[in-house]
Design goal:
This protein has about 400 residues and is mainly α. It is built from 13 helices and 2 strands; from the N terminus they run ααααααααααββααα. A hairpin with a 3-residue loop joins strand 1 and strand 2. The radius of gyration is 25 Å and the shape is elongated. It starts with about 20 loop residues before the first helix and ends with a helix.
C-alpha cells in the first residue's frame, strides 16, 4: 500500500509515538541532515549535506540579489513581485533552516522522551490513540509535501510555458534569452535548487506541528488516567497513591519534552512571524494587479504554503492550552474527597503545577497562538491598502 503510514495500523502491529516522525526524518535523511555515524559513507553523505546547504540555503537567496543587481530593468512588475515575494521568504527560510539544523539534536532527544512516555501506554485504548496520532502526524507531513511540491512545480511549468525562468536567479553561465533549449536548461536548474530549498523549508515548518500533535495525544492519555484515579475498587489506598504519583511523573516528562523543543520552535516561528505579513501582502498585490492566469495559479499555491507555515501550528498551540485546562478540571473532578491526607497533599501539588499552561513563545516575545498569527498576517492588508492609496500599482504599470 502506498503511503501506508497515513492510516492507523492494526493494533496487532507495535507502534510508538516516534513513528509519527517517520516521514519527517526520511525527508531529513534525503536532504542531508542525518549522516551515518561512521565509515566512508559518512563522508560521502556529508558531501551531499554540504551541496544542499551551498545551493539551496546559500546560493538561492544570493541568486535573487544577483539578478536584481544585473537585470532589474528587464523585470516586468508582475515578474518582479513574483521574484521578490519568494526572495524575502527564501532569506527567512535560510534562517529557519540554520536554526532547525543547529538544534536538530533537541528534536532527536525529544523522541527518546516519547519512548519513556510510551511505557505508560498499556491499555488497548491508549495503544489505539498512539496508532491514530502516528497516522495523523505522517498524514500532515504528506499534505505539506504535496502543497509545497505543488507550488514549486506549478511555478516552474507556468513560467517556462510563458517564456521565462520561474524565479530568474542569477546565472552567469547560461543566458536563457538564447533560445528555447537554454530557457528549459536554466529553468530546470532553478527548479532543482528551489526544490531543495522548498524541502528544507518544509522540514522547518512541519516539525513543530508533528511534535505538538504527538504532545496532544499524550496530554489526552494523561487526562484519561487522571479521571480513572481511585475509580478501581480493587486497588488499595497505597496503590491508588502510586497511580497518582505516576501521573505526576508523566506530567513532568511532558513538561521536559516541551522544554526541549521550545527553543527550536521559538526561533523558527519568530522568523516566520516577522515575514508572513509582508510576503502575503506582496503576493496578494501580485495576484490582484499584475497576474495572468498562469502566474495567478502559482501565486495562489504560494499563498497556501505561506498560510500553512504558521496557521496549523498556531491552532494546535491553542488546543494545547485547552488541553492543559482540561487536565486541571480532570484533577479537580477526580475521586479525591475521601482520600488520605498524603493523597490530597500530592493532588494539590499536582493541581498547582498543571494550572500553568503549556505555552510556546516566539523569540521570547510573541505567544504563539491563533490571535498572534492573525495579528501578524493582518499586515498583508496594510501593505495592500498602502499600495492602493499611493496608486503604486498603476505607476508600475505605466512605467
Amino acid at each position: 500500500m502506498v503511503f501506508k503510514l497515513i492510516r492507523p495500523a492494526p493494533l496487532t502491529e507495535p507502534k510508538r509515538s516516534r513513528d509519527g516522525c517517520i516521514y519527517l526524518y526520511r525527508a531529513m535523511k534525503f536532504i542531508g541532515w542525518l549522516p551515518p555515524k561512521d565509515g566512508v559513507s559518512r563522508y560521502l553523505y556529508l558531501t551531499w549535506t554540504l551541496m544542499t546547504f551551498v545551493w539551496s540555503t546559500t546560493y538561492l537567496p544570493l541568486g535573487f540579489l544577483g539578478s536584481y543587481m544585473t537585470q532589474i530593468k528587464s523585470f516586468s512588475p508582475g515578474e518582479f513581485l513574483t521574484s521578490l515575494q519568494v526572495c524575502i521568504n527564501a532569506y527567512g527560510s535560510s534562517v529557519k533552516v540554520a536554526i532547525t539544523y543547529s538544534m536538530l539534536w533537541r528534536l532527536i532527544k525529544a523522541k527518546s522522551l516519547l519512548d519513556h512516555l510510551d511505557l505508560r501506554c498499556t491499555t488497548m485504548e491508549e495503544r489505539e490513540k498512539i496508532h491514530r496520532v502516528v497516522a495523523r502526524s505522517n498524514h500532515a507531513f504528506l499534505i505539506f509535501t504535496f502543497v509545497y511540491c505543488g507550488y514549486a512545480g506549478s511555478t516552474y511549468l507556468s513560467s517556462v510555458l510563458s517564456g521565462r525562468p520561474p524565479w530568474q536567479l542569477y546565472n552567469p553561465f547560461i543566458d536563457w534569452h538564447d533560445g528555447t533549449l537554454k530557457l528549459w536548461v536554466a529553468s530546470t536548474l532553478e527548479y532543482i535548487v528551489m526544490s531543495g530549498a522548498v524541502l528544507q523549508d518544509q522540514l522547518s515548518d512541519t516539525y513543530p506541528l508533528v511534535y505538538t500533535l504527538i504532545l496532544r495525544a499524550h496530554l489526552d492519555m494523561l487526562r484519561e488516567r487522571i479521571r480513572r484515579l481511585r475509580s478501581d475498587v480493587t486497588l488499595s489506598e497505597a496503590e491508588s497513591y502510586e497511580e497518582l504519583v505516576k501521573c505526576v511523573i508523566d506530567h513532568k516528562l511532558i513538561l521536559r519534552y516541551c522544554s526541549i523543543i521550545k527553543p527550536v520552535i521559538s526561533g523558527t516561528i519568530f522568523t516566520q512571524f516577522l515575514l508572513i505579513g509582508l510576503v502575503l501582502g506582496l503576493t496578494l498585490i501580485n495576484v490582484f494587479f499584475f497576474s495572468d492566469i498562469w502566474t495567478g495559479i502559482a501565486s495562489f499555491m504560494f499563498v497556501i504554503t505561506i498560510l500553512l507555515q504558521t496557521f496549523p501550528f498556531c491552532y494546535t498551540c491553542n488546543l494545547i492550552m485547552e488541553d492543559c485546562e482540561s487536565l486541571t478540571h480532570a484533577i479537580f473532578q477526580s475521586n479525591w474527597v475521601d482520600a488520605s491526607r498524603r493523597y490530597k497533599t500530592t493532588l494539590l501539588y499536582f493541581l498547582q503545577n498543571v494550572q500553568q499552561p503549556i505555552v510556546f513563545i516566539a523569540g521570547g516575545i510573541f505567544q504563539i497562538s491563533m490571535s498572534s498569527n492573525i495579528s501578524v498576517a493582518k499586515f498583508a492588508f496594510s501593505v495592500i491598502t498602502i499600495t492602493k492609496q499611493m496608486n503604486i500599482a498603476d505607476k508600475f504599470k505605466t512605467d
